[in-house]
Amino acid sequence: MTNHQISPSIFARVDRTAGALSVEFAELGVATVHESQGRSGLMDPAIKPLVEGSRVAGPAVTCLNQPGDNLMLLAALDLCQEGDVLVVANLAPSTAGMVGEIISSILLARGAAGLVVDAGVRDVRELRRLPLPVWSRTVSATGTTKGGPGWVNTPVVAGGATVRPGDIVVGDDDGVVVVPRESAGEVLARGKERVEREAVLLKDIAAGRWPGLSPELHEQLRKVGVQRIPEPH
Ligand SMILES: O=C([O-])CC(=O)C(=O)O
After folding, report:
1. What InterPro entries does the database record attribute to this sequence (predicted)?
2. Among the four residues 23, 98, 188, 195, which has the most C-beta atoms within 10 Å?
3. How many distinct structural domains can be found in the chain?
């Protein structure tokens, strides 16, 4: 069933069990998490951080809005808890400025860990000063109506990625990736293994011990007909 087939609703309940892993997910970062779940869950690269160096992970609270309208976003605010990441989606593409200083300040006061907006944000000078990491598609001062209807805490598509309430949303300078809550433990374990492998490789590289291309990559070059031309004598 899609969101269009259920009547406009606000679901208060969010399964935040995977949220216990948030700190570790934030440490892994977006690229590692994306790789560790089979290169899935990544939002469109147009969804960018407002402030370089931002990093967050937390369970999603979702809202699905009419384009150019933020009533459902406003309705989602008092369902946000400590550590949550509010994900703002729209029923059709929108670049309107759905969030400004007021909404960001409310989120901070509620202890939210971050905000992802698949549309525009405004008051960005103030937003950049607030300790709330924000990712958005664009910056736009265009104001929004408060008419609705829409949904809070249903599955949504934001930045091209499916997000369900309680899924783990990870954001950093690489963008935003979403981890389905059921697979969070498994993805985290694979991510940690990857970080360990890469740490060994980086140490070898720094010590001048890069082993060169693996036999598999040499074989791939051969298979696709790439020839090595030796230096002329
Ligand atoms: O209220 C709005 O529509 C968005 C806004 O300007 C704010 O959050 O300050």
Report:
1. RraA/RraA-like, RraA/RraA-like_sf
2. 98
3. 1
